[in-house]
From TrEMBL:
Cellular component aspect of the GO annotation: cytosol
UniProt keyword Ribosomal protein, yes or no: no
Lineage: Bacteria, Bacillati, Bacillota, Bacilli, Lactobacillales
Protein name (record): dITP/XTP pyrophosphatase
Assembly behavior: Homodimer.
Origin species: Streptococcus downei MFe28
Any GO BP: nucleotide metabolic process
Its EC number(s): 3.6.1.66
Cofactor note: Binds 1 Mg(2+) ion per subunit.
A GO term for molecular function: metal ion binding
Amino acid sequence: MTDKIYEYKDDQDWFVGKWSDFSRIYQLGGAGDFSKIEQEVASLIPEQQGLDIVIMRYSSDFRLLAFIVDVINETLGRQLDIKQHKGATILSEGQQLRLVHLPEQGLPLADFFSESSQVGFGDKILIATRNEGKTKEFRQMFEKLGLTVENLNDHPDLPEVEETGTTFEENARLKAETIAKLTGQMVLADDSGLKVDALGGLPGVWSARFAGPDADDDKNNAKLLHELAMVFDEKDRSAQFHTTLVVAAPGRQSLVVEADWPGYIGFEAKGDNGFGYDPLFLVGETGRSAAQLIAEEKNAQSHRGLAVAKLMEVFPAWQKEQS
């Protein structure tokens, strides 16, 4: 068996493992009992082999099992798939159910075998957007948590939710909580916009329609430059891109995270990437506009990227508390 050392590390979890003669899982400085998972691992691998795993940080059984599945698939060429379902963790391989890992307190049968489970195992999250690019970004993150990701294109009969709120959070809540109530699913919605200090925070929640009902990106940018025409010093043209993310589910308290991306409004449009106000938004002290950044640069520092990073830190704990 290979001598390779395997590692998974993020802000919530940190696991280090290697193949051994028997399976052992222990937590440094912790009192956690992982004997149940040790037995479950033994059922997934050949006899006379085991995984020796050291836990440096721990947030959930699911994340630990996902690490173990990745190691087994990579080393043994298996195709194990892991999902969350009604608080349980489901491991399957092809059309075969291999393992059901339950929380210590168990699960009510009525919850596990609810009507929604008849159309396929696995918890889902619905992204309140029809933008496939945005959906792809969220899919990459939530699939790591064992969730299937859908968007509004999968639900063509859903009505459009009118954004009548006066704050980013109100609008994001309206979308997430309304769609969650209509579908019975977990829903993520966002509301984003540009806040310009010299304009008292405008255009804010009206960013997409700043220039009026028939506004588009060019008209909005032209209006913004017009409103700042008498502001000559760049330091007085400070601004922030803002994002609020809300995750809602029926009968649960919604999860809210926010993030800002500070910068300045330039005197002319620069760059061909991005959309909206990106050509006018100068990033920090760099002098480059958001439209001059490649996608990887933008995602690493933008308001949406920062908000998503915050969401990934708190979502597992929220999901566990609400289930």
